[in-house]
Design brief:
Layout: E1 3-7, E2 10-13, E3 18-25, E4 34-39, E5 46-51, E6 58-60, E7 68-73, E8 78-83, E9 92-99, E10 115-118, E11 122-127
Parallel strand pairs: 2-11
Antiparallel strand pairs: 1-3, 3-8, 4-5, 4-9, 5-6, 7-8, 9-10, 9-11
């Protein structure tokens, strides 16, 4: 049974930084691409970032490009999201997700349907 558990959320002032982590279990972590999504109240789920199984390829949503960095540690079965220069528009529940296929999804990584497993999410609140 696949389990994804996020941590690291919290309250931060605008301009600050947070680092989210996602701990995975249940499948061979290194075989699958991983992603981060977020959802703010009253808004649709938004793609944040994705990373290939080796970590050699990444994809970012336009709204976070240049501010967020996705990474993974296959030895520890973890994935991180370093978030810098946070603003109030970044306030949301952030969820990690694991792709269903072992193949790199490329630009399709921004689509929710690519991911078969999801974590419960962690709240990030950015105050002005």
């Amino acid at each position: 049974q696949v389990q994804l558990v996020e941590s690291g959320g919290g309250l931060v002032q605008a301009g600050g930084s947070l680092r989210l982590s996602c701990a995975a279990s249940g499948r061979t972590f290194s075989r699958y691409a991983m992603g981060w999504f977020r959802q703010a109240p009253g808004k649709e789920r938004e793609f944040v970032a994705a990373i290939s199984r080796s970590g050699g390829s990444t994809l970012y949503g336009d709204s976070v490009k240049g501010r967020f960095t996705i990474s993974r540690d296959n030895a520890k079965n973890t994935m991180d999201l370093q978030m810098n220069s946070l603003n109030v528009e970044d306030t949301a529940v952030y969820s990690c997700a694991q792709a269903g296929s072992i193949y790199w999804c490329g630009s399709a990584c921004s689509q929710s349907a690519v991911y078969h497993y999801w974590g419960q999410g962690t709240q990030v609140t950015v105050s002005s």
